[in-house]
Amino acid sequence: MTTETLPDHFSVVYRLHGPPAQAERTAAAIALEQTVELPADLIAPGSFSAQLIGRVAALSVVDATTTDAVISYAGATVGEGLPQLLNVIFGNSSLIPNIRVVGLTLPASLTDRFPGPRFGRAGVRQRLGVPARPLLCTALKPLGLSASELAGVAYRCALGGVDLIKDDHGLADQPSAPFAERVARCAEAVARANDETGERSIYLANISAPAHLVHARALAARAAGAGGVLIAPGLVGLDMVRQLAADAQFNLPIMAHPAFQGSIVVSPTSGVAHGVLFGTLTRLAGADATIFPNDGGRFTFTRADCAAIAAATGAPLGGLAPIFPTPAGGVALERVPELVERYGHDVILLIGGALLRAGAALPTAARAIRAQLAP
Q1: Closest CA to 93 of 33, 16, 39
Q2: What is the pLDDT of residues 15-48, one digit of tens each?
Q3: Active-site residue numbers?
């Protein structure tokens, strides 16, 4: 079979787990399920529906129990935007065991429909005034601190030169630190520290919320002085990220958090591969940085999983800007040199508990990390 992809087509690589002898039949079923959702004999030959049926472009046996199937889809199947693209990639077939999306190739004719990251790596660096070195990020926590207490942590982080100081993803609009008060206090604290240091640290407010509130909170965060936002696509949807990235009135960097997306990637025989979800799709939606659990922390991502995500954040994707891979999830201070060596300088290192453990000495601890990140 040919692996040719027509100019207005995109292709998905599905890893099929089962006897290779069944792979061709399974791939053909996926091609129908993801498009016309009917048996082939019910589709009139030569009709427009027939032209939209996915085309099995290649089958490649990986091992005795695994086959990769490349299926090509017409760009016309996407229609109105990102939700339908996701639906064609893995809508009904996500309900079937032993099928995993491991690759995605999108032509410029399709990526041009999406704005992608408004800032990307270069834009975030420009806002921070940091042209080369790895960036340092931390999270304000724990849940239960008051808005003024969280602002105090944010102030110490900014004094220490932490580039990006984000809300923890669990900070929403709880009574202990209501959204409006927390954002105003934390933004003010970071601005005050910047005045003292001459640096340009930014505070990112968590705006993951009920759908009718997300856009308003994004604009409120901007008005309060936040320099960016944190959002969890698994909670509010990838298309909400796309909407914000496209909004010229909002116009702030977006950091994506992986909450609620873990079950999509953790099974080796189903779901979506790490690089496709946290790299390609998150970038296509318009996030400027993508958080993921680094290997060796308190989660189970492997080194290969993390490398795939990092690669996808910068791989060619139409005209879309590269974004920052942001390894997190129990990053120990002693691992900083190793992580810089692995990821290079185009990375955001998200260090939470290991940095916050310093307490009142947090600025000194942060400066010590910054010294390790100097180009």
Answers
A1: 33
A2: 999 999 999 999 999 999 999 999 999 999 999 9
A3: 141, 257
